[in-house]
Amino acid sequence: MKNLKLIWLVLALFSFTIVSCDDDDEPDEIIIDSSLPSGTFSASRTGSLTAQNGTPTSGSVELGTDDDGVTYLHFGSNFTTELGTGTVSIYLSTSDTFMADPANGNPDLILVGVVNENGESYFKVSKTVSSSFTHVIIWCGSANIPFGNAQLQ
C-alpha cells in the first residue's frame, strides 16, 4: 500500500512539473505603452522650467506630436521638482500664473497629468492645444502653490 501511495505521489509531481513548464514555442507577449509616443516625437514648442517658491524645479519641456498626430508634453531627462509634498500636477496655461476656478472650470488651464518621478517622461494631452496655451505650470495642490513654470516658444 505504501508503494502505491509513493507511485501516485511521484506521478502527481511529474504531472505538475510537465503542466507548469513554459512552452518556448509561444511568442513573448508585447505590451504597448500608450503613454509613450508612437514612432518619432516631434517637438513644436520648447521651454525651460523656472523654479518658484524655493523648490528645486528645473529642466526642459517640449510640446509636440508623435507619428499618429497625438499630442504629448515631454519632460527631459534633466527634469526635477519636489515630490515629497503630495500631489504635484502639470498644467498647460495661457499665462505663467495658475488661476483655478473650480466652480466654473477654467478655459485657460488644461490639466495634463500628475508628476510621479523626476527625469524623462511623456504625458499624453487629451485635448487639442491651441497656440494660446503658452506656459507649462508645475502646481502643488497640497501646498496650493506653484513649484515652477516654463514658457513654450
Structure description:
An eight-stranded antiparallel beta sheet has the order 5-4-7-8-1-2-3-6, with no helix packed on it. It has 153 residues and is mainly beta. The chain has one helix at residues 2-20; strands at residues 42-51, 59-65, 71-75, 88-93, 109-114, 121-124, 135-140, 145-151. It is globular.
Apparent shape: globular
Rounded Rg: 25 Å
**Biggest β-sheet: count, sense, barrel?**
8 strands, antiparallel
Mean pLDDT: 84
Kindly report how far apart the N and C termini lie: 84 Å
Q: Helix share of residues?
A: 10-25%
H and E order: HEEEEEEEE
Provide key terms for this protein.
153 residues; mainly beta; 8-stranded antiparallel sheet; 1 helix; 8 strands; globular
Helix and strand layout, with pairings?
Blueprint: H1 2-20, E1 42-51, E2 59-65, E3 71-75, E4 88-93, E5 109-114, E6 121-124, E7 135-140, E8 145-151
Antiparallel strand pairs: 1-2, 1-8, 2-3, 3-6, 4-5, 4-7, 7-8
Summarize, please.
It contains 1 helix and 8 strands; from the N terminus they run αββββββββ. The chain has 153 residues and is mainly β. The chain has an 8-stranded antiparallel beta sheet, with no helix packed on it.
